Amino acid sequence: MINRGLFTVYKMHIKQQLLSKAFVVATLLMPVVMFGIIFIQAALMNISGAEKSHIYITSDDQNLLSSIEAQLQTRSEVSKGIYKMEYQLVSAAAFDEFLASKRADILANSNNGLFFIPGQALDDKAVRFYSTNLGNQILRQSMSETFNQVLNRDHFSTLGVPAADLEFAVKTIDIKGFTVSEHGAEQGSVGNTAVGFGMAFLLMFSIMGIVMPFSAAIIEEKTNRAVEVLLTSVNPKQLLAGKIMARVTTGVAQMFVWLLPLFVFVLFPASMALPPQFQIDLGPGIFLFFFANYVLGLCMLLAIWGGFSAMFDSTQDANQAMWPISMLMFVPFYAVFAVIRNPANSVAEILSMTPLTSLYVMPVRLATLAVPLWQPLVALAANGILVWLAIKAGGKIYRISILATGQQPSMQQFFKWLRQP
Amino acid sequence: MNALEVTNLTKHFGTFVAVDNVSFTIPEGVIFGMLGRNGAGKTTTIRMLMNIYEMDAGTIKFRGNRVGQEFRDRVGYLPEERGLNTKMRVLDTLLYLAELKGKQGAAVKDKAMAFLTRFELDTRTRSKVQELSKGNQQKIQFISTILHDPDFIILDEPFSGLDPVNVNLFKDIILELKAQGKAIIFSTHLMEFAEKMCDHIALFHHGKVLLSGALAEVKQRFSSCNVVLHYEGSIEFLRSLPYIRKVQDYGNYCGITIAQRNDSQRLLRDVLNHDVVVHKFDANDISLNDIFLSQTGAQGEAA
Q: From the list B52, B88, B99, which residue is nearest A232 (CB)?
């Protein structure tokens, strides 16, 4: 199958792809975009947490109110003046009248609020929150933490529990993870998990960037009739194969550039002094699997895209008809979230060997777990079989439909073409 | 020796028979006119020759051997619907299409530049194809058809959309290629060009070949009892003359079918007696257009 014609098509397309401005921009820009998204998200969270608010803390218990005030003064939001606090002793009977007096101020700013912590809360931890914006989770969570600490401390102190024991009781637990392997146990790190998820995201971005424009390229060549001239020199399968090979090479080159910093780090771990909990410990196996599976995934999706796109005379028609097929690209990515809580659960294990979902899930599992060798091999074999079927079907549809113009293809026609020898 | 032998070629699209048991031969070094109306089966036949469409039945032999990759490498094809990758640069396009045919290197580049100069496009080598006018794009397509020095050239409606100057340039190059001994298929529904340029013809109609062979023989076969008259004046009176069978009038040129060969003398006398100015009077001659119309029964389109 690999002959002069195929190689010439490959050579021309690889030159067109690798030297294009789009490739250079996408390759250099994507890491910037990724880090930009993370930065913007962090900045947004920071900004949203720092919203100025006027907060009333009320209680019918003076001791409890004083304890809460003392605890809140230790909060940075209060000391920086972001939260303007006002404390007021209010009996339960006078609360409605007090609330009415503050209503105008609460209505004036949706970030303002009023908390009522009755003395009864020392027994039932029931606290009331008054605001126009009950969805202000940042304020609720921040106050909830403080109130819980104060209520625990005051409740147990009345029972005669020593202060040191009380501090122990309110302290949150810290579970340090150690990864057990045949060589022993080492302190665990979130570095590998982060890399696993990062690789899954990169895979998704890359597949989208490489596969989706393929449709427009195929349709353009069909509609400007250039394909008729090309088919006098190469057969349709060679033409499609040359295009797919060029795009796969482009994708691998792009992914290599993106992962280059990681390679450097893995080869020279001392080059980056990371704290133990962020250390990255990955072998070459995960990269071999990642690239092998990436190549298979691209081949599969490009063959399907190439075949289907050849059936249409316009990009608009193709996009409308192909959205269900686009799900082949997007839905498997969401399988990654199945491994967030436990990469070793049985659902994650099955998804990591299922064609398409394995593209994203297996790298995450390989990064975070000692996965038995047979599992990545099964994933590769399953994807390999699907690639073979996709190339066979996509190549056939491409061959038959690339010169068929002027008619809207139907499912009936698609299956008829698929059955043709 | 024949360059190409096509035997019993057939192609169906569903129940529609696009090409029906077509046979013809093309000798070496001739211009072969593939003639017929739009939809007659010419382009489908060409696409089967080029293996773009798979034939349902029949054989195609190039110099005695069934056509394969070797034939495809040695053929130059100018399709009816021009097709170039419009985002590629002019010189890159030419070199890419030549390389697909197995030709690359400095010699091909030099030859491409020579053609571009001849077509006055040597300053546009770095331009993208889409930046060129339609006529200039057609020149690029034509150069790509012949750049790899093919032995066999297929030109499907090569002059459509060209201005007269460029038609002349194309025509000159086609005749040069013929002089180099290359076999050329010239597909057209324009009989005037076919009559001037072709040595052999095949007349397609509804997917069949109605007649084929050397143009001179075909004309001889149909020219008996025919007169071609180039004139000024009114020739309406001809239709009432008893020895006139048929008149195909085109204003200042007409084809006339007479009852017997020696009626041509009477015809000339009658024409002169009616004060018609005679510019040319060819007895026992017939235009390809008249043959086409008489065989297909068509009016108008091929005229």
A: B52
